[in-house]
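Reproducibility note. Readers wishing to regenerate the assembly model reported in the main text can use the exact inputs given here. Chain order matters: entities are listed in the order in which they were concatenated for prediction.
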Amino acid sequence: MKRKKRYSTRNIFFVYSLMILIVAVISFAVSMYFSRMIKAANQAGDSPSAISESGVELNKYYVMITSDRELDFWQSVYKGAYEEGLKKGVSVELMGENLSEDYDEKELMEIAIASKVDGIIVYADDSLEMRSLIDEAVYEGIPVVTVYGDNANSSRICYVGVGSYNLGREYGKQIVKIAREYELSNTTASTHMNDVIKVAALVNSYSDNSNQSLVLSGIQNAVSTENNTQIQIELTQVYVDNRNTFTTEESIRDIFRGEEAPDVIVCLNETDTNCVYQSLVDYNKVGKSYILGYYDSETILKGISRNVIYSTVSVDTQQMGVYCVDAIKEYEQNGNTSQYMPADVTLIDKNNVSEYLVETGEVAQ
Amino acid sequence: MKEKHARPTISLQVKLSGIFIMASILIFIVNAMLALGITNMTNEMDSVYRDNLKLNELAVSLSEVQTSMTDYLNTKTTDSLERYFKSEQDYYSLIGELNNEVTGDSYDLMEKNIRNMSEEYLETTGYAIEAKRGRNVEKYSAEYDKASRLYNYINTYINSLNNERFKSNSSNFTELISAFRIFELITFFIMFGAVIGSTLFVIGFTSSLMDPVRKLAKSADEVAKGNFELENIEIISGDEIGVVTGAFNKMVVSIRQYIEQIKENMEYERSMQEKELRIEATLKEAQLKYLQTQINPHFLFNTLNAGAQLAMMEEAQRTYDYIQNTAEFFRYNVREGNTTVRLSDEIALIDHYIYILNVRFSGDIKYEKTVDETIVDVLMPSMILQPIVENSVNHGIKEMEGKGKISLRVYSEDGFVCISVKDNGAGMSKEMIDKVLSGELTEEEKPSPVGAHGIGMDNVIKRLRLFTDREDSVSIKSDGEGKGTEVIIKLIKE
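Running the prediction on these inputs yields the following structure tokens for the assembly.
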């Protein structure tokens, strides 16, 4: 007791010194923590992409140019290109994504050329303007790959796309299949000689695309060679005003407003498929018209499982993206590459739709 | 003492300064941390929108290039040309700061695009200006168109990048603010803790400092109430309080000692007074007893004087002498109450007394007197020698039929005045002497004097002892029964 008292002053000093030390340490720790936290906060929004974390040193910068960037189809293509680019040390950007103004492909091409990018992947059309832009880019030393839509006369190094003629044949086969089913289901009639199936192929009126005609001739070919039914198949082209999204929708609705809706509607892109699908439901034509869709977005797959869409073709979009990057990379290394790279196409109907639905469901999760 | 050496001698000033310095250090640390944190935060906040500022600057500069170029193409003034070159220079240096590397960051890529497009743009404007100078209208309008398109693209890019940056910066800012809030909260708690800590420390320290003072105050209060029986206060520290405490302890001890001494003195004085009172009382007792025996000494004295004159007239010389002696004897007793007399007076009284006795007993008593006349002025209580002589006569020689002898001797010895009354009478046993000297003689043992009312030896001895303050002032010597007795009185020589 006595002893304790005698050292009490010193004890208090000691305890206090300890306290100061603790406070100092806490202060230091807190300030360290906060300076880190602040730095992290400051950088948090700066790198929205995960590229920098992959550890691969990026040295090339390709851009991908397309309108309708929001479509699943293009997002998927971009994803394939982007991931392939990461592997090869290339930063692939979906151009126009971050811009406040909505530029079309041609303006974006100009920007890309002026920006002196290392490679351009473009959804091209047949126009002269596009051709000259592509030529200009190549002249400036920027290799250009066209994807899904080609400008065959330009000096583009490669076209990555779906084999349009084969695609057409696929559609044709589906149409014949529909005809056969019809024949089988209407056994009461003695003859189907006078039965006609009207097929409407939706053609974009404002894109001068040779692909469309290739698809159409593919359909024509398949129908004429494979149709072993008595039913006549009448193929017509329906022009869709695709100047913008709204006109597309309106044009498609016009089809159903007409007196007689076609029995089969062939859609050659994702937007058309979606529009037709929605219109069919709205005009209560489910079961009366068949939709041959394009692409395997979730909406479209659901349409198949609900028996609204007869079938759709699934293009391996990611593969397309991969091919694009590969083509430019190959050109850079070898000075040339193959002129045409076809992507895989798969038919999806109600027999195998469940597989894809599960897949996309999983992906969505 | 050892403790004192072991104790650290930290002065009160140092301790008090210590408290304040410690508390200040604590507050300082907390404040420093706070200041550091705030500076850090402010810097970060400043930098949050720095990108945007930079981009705005870029946009302004770009617009200046475009306007000055357009101006020149329109007007071809030197002023606008100068402005063009200047703004071109400015813009060029600005785009030099932009990113030119391929990274995974889309903003960096946008910066790179802006940079490349700007270079292209500046080149184009350069061509346009040149063509204007060369008056090549077709070319400069084509270049102007291209430049304008690029200008729009670049503007869009800058705006978009600005927008995107702003968005992410805003989220940064929000996070920063929330971090700042947490920081504030934590700082508050630390401040709070520091305040509580320093308060506890100051309270603890001051109480440890004040504890001895409190004890001291309590003790001082006790002392003020008159209680000196305190334990020593423990000295805890070597500071001024310790010193004061030590001094206080010593003071209490000293005061206690002084009080003790004063008490002793008082006791002594009291005993002295008591003694005086006792002397007086015994004298009074003696006188009373004497007066009891002499019913009216004045009357007796006057009577005797008358008798003496009568005898003188009748020419009876011996009768006159006798009566005269008797009168003198009584007069001594009648004199106004001096308790202290000269030895010579006492001797004179003895002379008278012996004379009277010799007349009474027809000269049976031989009386020898050896007196050192130089010392007879010494003072002594009255009525001392007479009772002793009376005692000698009564117990010593009364029955000796003329052989009795009393010798009085006055002499100095070892600085004392010695008075010896010696007889050759009955003598005393050793036990008897002791009893007499110690005053333990019972009433029966006391030898009944003639009239049974003389002044007893015990009274004489008491008075002498009181007067001289010495136990040995009276001594009795006797060789045994029948061998005489000697009473010796020792007085202090003046």
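We highlight two features of this model. The CA atoms of residues 34 and 40 of chain A lie 9 Å apart. DSSP finds 13 helices and twelve strands in chain A.
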